[in-house]
Design brief:
binds coenzyme A, alpha+beta, seven-stranded mixed beta sheet, Aminopeptidase
Length: 141
């Protein structure tokens, strides 16, 4: 069941456990809304919408491994997109660890130089050495 929460710390821990990098952003994340996917009282997935320096971003999204590939990540992302649209966003940005998923979800690739500098990856010392994040955007208009 998808529901919203304000428990940012708990969700950040969940994201970290699923391999997302949180807390290295150069700007305030300004998390606007968080959705959780709960099954039998267990947190199995989450997604969050951020507004960083005026830029709408998919702040984080992850599912527990056992619950992936069932369409649940896509359902969570749909909430993020719908809310961003409702609030007047024209573009939503992210740095993808799973670009294939976001490509299927209508996001396209861009390079860091054409993306707002609101992600921790921008100035990271291992960027394009040990880690190959992909900057992506989706037009919402
Ligand atoms: C990315 C993630 C949230 C997707 O959640 P999910 O529940 O597995 O996604 P869905 O089942 O809704 O997938 C929708 C479609 O995308 C595909 N897909 C999912 N992950 C994919 C990936 N990494 N690469 C390519 N395609 C992918 C699925 O096969 C599915 O296609 P189908 O409907 O034809 O089967 C999940 O894999 C995850 O938590 N990954 C680890 C954390 C992470 O990388 N988060 C993103 C940070 S930017």
């Amino acid at each position: 069941m998808i529901q919203t929460t304000t428990e940012l710390e708990k969700i950040d821990s969940f994201f970290l456990e699923q391999g997302l990098e949180m807390g290295n952003e150069p700007v305030d994340r300004h998390v606007q809304k968080i959705w959780t996917d709960i099954e039998d009282g267990v947190l199995v997935g989450a997604a969050s919408l951020g507004l960083r320096e005026g830029h709408w971003v998919v702040d984080g999204i992850a599912m527990l491994p056992a619950y992936r590939s069932q369409g649940r990540g896509s359902r969570l992302l749909a909430h993020v997109i719908e809310e961003a649209r409702r609030r007047g966003a024209h573009i939503i940005w992210l740095v993808a660890k799973s670009p294939g998923f976001f490509e299927r979800e209508g996001f396209s690739y861009t390079d860091a130089e054409h993306a707002p500098e609101v992600f921790g990856c921008h100035d990271c010392s291992i960027r394009d050495i040990d880690c190959h994040p992909r900057w992506m955007r989706r037009d919402l208009t």
